[in-house]
Amino acid sequence: MDLNDLPALNAVLNGTAAVLLTVGYVQIRRGRTAFHKRCMLAALATSALFLVSYVVYHANTGSRPFPGRGPARVVYFAILISHVVLAAVILPLALVTAGRGLAAQYDRHVRLARWTLPIWIYVSVTGVVIYVMLYRLY
Question: Domains in the chain: how many in total?
Fold first, then answer.
């Protein structure tokens, strides 16, 4: 795999994490705790793979400037800024939430997961949007 393939891989990993998180949420709402646990651990592993791939890519290539102009530039940077801030927040949130679930601290797990899930899904989906805007639209 070439370094230039990593942004597309990162988008696929982000999209996969978003799907796994959504399926995991649906499963816990249906009372299917074992399936929920597998989905959430798979989402965590997928996000970890994304983080490794992201760091490898940017350590070797640096950042890519957004070439768009006008309203597209404003939209892109609004999404990017919120994505970056929440991406920094989600790592410890996801780890603590998963740890509480694995430790069977379910009340504490649920209280934190109510915040973690929507933030994690937002970060995963906006990661795909950023890829499309940066590498496909321009």
Answer: 1
